[in-house]
TrEMBL record:
Region named Disordered: 1-87
Domain of life: Eukaryota
Lineage: Eukaryota, Fungi, Dikarya, Ascomycota, Pezizomycotina
GO annotation, cellular component aspect: cytoplasm
Protein name, entry field: Conidiation-specific protein 6
Pfam short name (any one): Con-6
Length: 87
């Protein structure tokens, strides 16, 4: 399974765990699959399952968005700088 497929499967299992229309049995199965690993690098972090690349792109977009407040732009820029330092 390639990393993209593994990431998509992980997203599906995570969504099932938070969906109120999914049975407890299915939620438990999702937990077990995620805990056991999917046999590939999902590219997701433990930080809420967010892809760091997508997060960085979103923060960069926020710094240039005219609908974002100056405070929001500053916060986005600081978070982006923190991400770059952690690499």
């Amino acid at each position: 399974m390639n990393p993209e497929e593994a990431a998509n499967k992980a997203r599906g299992y995570k969504a099932a765990m938070h969906n109120p229309n999914v049975s407890e049995q299915a939620k438990q199965h999702s937990r077990e699959v995620l805990e056991g690993g999917l046999g590939g690098d999902t590219g997701l972090t433990d930080e809420g399952g967010k892809d760091p690349g997508n997060r960085a792109r979103g923060l960069k977009a926020a710094t240039h968005n005219p609908n974002v407040t100056e405070e929001g732009k500053k916060s986005a820029q600081e978070q982006l700088e923190d991400m770059e330092q952690q690499e």
